[in-house]
Amino acid sequence: MPAVPHDHNDFVQTHVFLGRGHARAESRAKWVAVLTFAFMLVEVAAGLWTGSMALLADGIHMATHAGALGLAAFSYFLARRYATDARFSFGSGKFGDLAAFTNAVLLGVLALIVAAQSLHRLLEPANVAYGDAMLVALIGLGINLVSAVLLHERHDHGHEHGHGHERGHAHALDGHDHDLNLRGAYLHVLADALTSVLALAALGAGLYFGIGWADSLAGIAGAIMIGLWSVGLLRDSALVLLDAEDDPGLAAAIKGEVEREFALTICDFHLWRLGPGHRGLIVSLVGATPADTETVKQRLIARHPSLSHVTVETVVCPACAAGKQ
To answer: Which fold, 248-323?
Structure first.
């Protein structure tokens, strides 16, 4: 009897690990980058004209943030462009995390620059056209808020939403699937909004109460807050780039399920992030008899939607088998 041909493509794992809503996030990042760049030109010119340190610092922030937002948008393009490129063993989902790491470094550098400039202005005060500077800062704040709304729709909502008890349990555990690239873009916009608010408060203090040093103090306060955001984003993106296990709760749940339901011992376990909403899992199991690895794999995938690339292998322990006789 002739053999029935099989389509082995049914068993080939795909390696496209882009986040949900990738195209929409890419489009919004591009629009925010263009909007930020356009107003940055206006704000830097206004800061130089009015002599406001807080306004100039806000404009400088916008200049670098426009570049950072452009980098975020470009990383979305690269991830999509190389999503099926075989050179990337586990897909192109980490392009965004690389951009997030770069943006975190830029935020940290900016914080240092603004702090240094503000300290210099504190020691050497200068005349400020408060009224004109406040108008420009107010317009800048409006643009920042619009940009933040555009980027916040998917901010920290990149994980799967399951249904039913098992899916709901997985949803609770698979909670560290943020789009770090979008988070980096969002933090840049938020940093601009913060400096705009501080600039408005400082300019108002100078205009109505004659407190000229408030302008420099606002720059220092903004630098501290931006520096803190930079550290958080730097830590999270670095962990992803280094393939660290970033969700101990999910790892513990998977280990418990395997050992409890299949009576197997885990001898090797690797869980890491492949991209927004996607994780890879490689697990080696030891037991008295060979286990049905496909059953283990499918059950884990069904319970944890973020597991997109799973490899399960089993090793028979002769001593364990002898002990059962």
So the answer is: Alpha-Beta Plaits (3.30.70)
